[in-house]
Amino acid sequence: MCKHIDYNLTYMPNQFNHDTQDEAGLEVHQFWPLVEIQCSPDLLFFLCSMYTPICLPDYRKPLPPCRSVCERAQRGCSPLMSQYGFQWPERMSCERLPAQGDAESFWIGLWSVLCFVSTFTTVATFLIDMERFKYPERPIIFLATCYLFVSLGYIVRLVAGHARVACNPDYQHVHYETTGPALCTLVFLLVYFFGMASSIWWVILSFTWFLAAGMKWGNEAIAGYAQYFHLAAWLIPSVKSIAVLALSSVDGDPVAGICYVGNQSIANLRGFVLAPLVVYLFTGSLVIKQGGTKTDKLEKLMLRIGIFTVLYTAPATVVVACYVYEQHYREGWERALGCSCPAERGRAGPDYAVFMLKYFMCLVGGITSGVWIWSGKTLESWRRFGGRCCQPRKPTSASMYSEASTALTARTGVASAGSYHKPVPLSHV
User: How far is it, in rounded angstroms, from Cα 175 to Cα 153?
Assistant: First the structure.
């Protein structure tokens, strides 16, 4: 029954004290009718991993199935068993099995929530005091806005679960070359579109800093090109996102559980992700280098913008390096995973820490954007905003004068000006 399962090494004796596969086979075959009617697509794998547990060459203990696999199998087959008077075996209780490791979900969730809080605070501060953030620093606000939506995409994955976002409906494999379902497409647009837009806004920030600090342009002169900045920052990611959707190149990320592009195709990774990021990083770094030669005496604001822009290059460089590492070794990883040859299986697998570093660096730019508003001016802006919202409005001077005039008229009995009409020549008006 387990001959064509996705692994070929097992560990005996199993947890039911079966010393041989023949003993395990005699007992597991009582569930064969349930496998035949396919009450659950996870039942066969669950039974085989229970009676013939997975054995890994570098791990000296049997590998039990995850609790989620057991729960899906029980959810599909337990009602049918109950119809014929059978109960789910106590020895296969799902509570006894380990829960799937969620270390990556915890860390990615923590980083995305921190990024959301930081960027939301930055954007909210801008909305209550727009006049404070002028060019050349205004691109930082749009950069934070992009990271706000990127973090929202990770939060959607955190709430909905990686299986509903990145996997097909029966949870058998991750999405590959698709444009749906809607939840997968939504996460893709939030992470990819706004992620690429954030890189372009960083290039624009570098350019505006160069104009202000290096070329000594004024705020109004830089603001005159704002429409072109927005055109580049939103149009280029839109074209790329539409191209990815039109080519059905959206796929599931098996580590982060999001929908992105290039997770299953090296060509898509190089064309839609790696190449644009390299171009943006090179362009922004070149502008910073050119501007750095003309900024001997900088005012405090220009110096802060310059430091923020330079510091952003560190996570951007790390992300590019992680993608280079991934696209260089992925074919070898896939061959080692799909081939049973000892030479291929002996290859080193991917470094898990590199992938986690990539996700952290993709979100740390948004977390650090909140540092920009850490000042007394921000507290003063929120204090004034709270005062406008919470304090009752006082009557205006016009209404006060009107009330005083009415009171005096009523008290003295003098008629209002409307009671007497004195003709005035038009030339006197």
Answer: 17
